[in-house]
Amino acid sequence: MTRPSRTHRLRTLVARSPLRAAGALLVGAYLAILATLAVKDAAGRLHDAEDRWGDGFRTSRARLLGRYGEGLAEVESLIPRDAAYLLLNRGTDGGFMLLQGDLAPRRPLILPDQNRRLPTEWLEEGVPPEVPRDVIRFEGLDRPPRYFHLDEVVR
Q1: pLDDT tens digit sequence for 139-153
Q2: Beta bridge partners of 87
Q3: pTM to 2 decimal places
Q4: 104-136 as b/e, with b when 16 or more CB fall inside 10 Å?
Q5: Could you count the other beta carbons within 10 Å of the beta carbon of residue 138?
Q6: Which end of the chain is more exposed for a tag (fewer CB within 10 A), N or C?
Q7: Going by C-beta distance under 8 Å and a sequence separation of 6 or more, which residues neighbour residue 14?
Q8: Cα dihedral angle (111, 114, 120, 126), rounded to 10 degrees?
Q9: CA distance linking residue 79 with residue 99, whole number of Å
Q10: What is the largest CA-CA distance in the chain?
């Protein structure tokens, strides 16, 4: 006996219980509108902070995001927009993905090592020339990202 396709099962569900399908659609639409309003509210708060205190975007963001925002402003000022950087992820909350978005259009090179350290062959033999020299250490959204130059670690 063959298994019915997903579209067939969906049509069957809608035919059996159109009220349930309409309710699911209504909840989905509500959540989409709610997410859009949250993003619009966050952008509005940044704009209000700029108008109220005369601060620029980076200063307003640093005020709203606390230590993470301050560290982010420092890192942005040190790494050019079209450059790549090496990301040492020591955070456990997955926030390094937010850091990548905040630092865009800069390109991250994330180390695949599980212990989140520089590869030992780099320390012994030297760093390959294609590896970016700008390094950001990320330890979580509750701490600021830290910038350092690769030559400070590997000599």
Answers
A1: 887 888 889 888 776
A2: 110, 136
A3: 0.58
A4: eebebeebeeeebebeeebeeeebeeebbbbbb
A5: 25
A6: N
A7: 21
A8: 0
A9: 14
A10: 70
